[in-house]
Write a structure and sequence with these properties.
By secondary structure, the protein is mostly helical. The protein contains eleven helices and two strands. Strand 1 and strand 2 form a beta hairpin.
Length: about 260
């Protein structure tokens, strides 16, 4: 005679844990960014349709995990130290190293290619509208004739693509390396300024990339991303070789003066 199984009651998740999980997801996917102020308790309680004590408990748990910080009389903020582990002094050293600039371009081949592929595959219309807006912002930044502003606009364009990939790891990795990547883009722009003829070609490559993504063509988007970066890398390498030859020529000329 078989003994009937005893059914255990399903344990319901605690409401504060559910709220905590949802807020953590918003942080992970980039809806809540490092340093961003959270809405007031009243607004969040209304948004989640929960009581304020449950919400307050969820925020306390996030604070214990160092995901948010409270400022006396100033509200609650997503911790701007979430990505601190990746903000290493080594990054500053890499930023000033010429060889590392090419290493970063190779790294960008991987992360930007993947994000373009998945953005084309998973992106929503809202994502595509944001990518288009960030793309247009690059043109506005170029009118300012300020390479730092342009570099920041280019990075924001790529960050919008990362967000559209709906891959939290890609997005947070790109966010964690923001300063380094912006420096890399700025340095590239400064060097490429000696070849103004290439700027229109770079813009064309970027436009093709955007078009492939918003058209929902993953393979074409991946290829467009690689062709764009490969073109920049090729021009920079040629310019580096030309500078090296010029420096050798100058040294030879100086020796003949003695």
């Amino acid at each position: 005679m078989s003994i009937p199984s005893i059914k255990k009651p399903v344990k319901q998740a605690k409401l504060s844990d559910v709220i905590q999980s949802q807020l953590e997801t918003m942080i992970l996917e980039g809806s809540l960014k490092p340093g961003q102020k959270l809405p007031s308790e009243r607004e969040l309680a209304k948004q989640f349709d929960v009581s304020r004590p449950s919400l307050r408990e969820a925020i306390q748990k996030l604070e214990a995990k160092n995901l948010v910080t409270r400022r006396q009389g100033g509200g609650t903020y997503v911790s701007d130290q979430i990505l601190g582990g990746l903000s290493d002094p080594l990054f500053a050293l890499m930023s000033g190293n010429n060889e590392s600039q090419f290493d970063l371009l190779e790294f960008r081949h991987g992360i930007e290619g993947m994000s373009a592929y998945y953005a084309a595959m998973r992106g929503t219309q809202a994502d595509f509208d944001e990518i288009q807006r960030k793309h247009d912002n690059i043109g506005s930044a170029q009118l300012e004739d300020n390479y730092r502003l342009e570099a920041e606009a280019v990075f924001e364009f790529y960050l919008a693509i990362c967000a559209a990939s709906h891959n939290g790891v890609i997005l947070q990795l790109a966010n964690s390396m923001a300063a380094l990547l912006i420096d890399n883009i700025e340095q590239n722009l400064t060097i490429l300024a000696k070849r103004p003829d290439v700027f229109s070609q770079i813009s064309d490559y970027r436009t093709r990339l955007m078009s492939a993504i918003v058209s929902g063509k993953p393979q074409i988007a991946w290829g467009a991303s690689h062709r764009h970066l490969a073109f920049i890398e090729e021009v920079l390498l040629k310019m580096s070789q030309e500078n090296s030859r010029m420096e050798r020529s100058m040294r030879r000329m100086k020796r003949t003066e003695f």
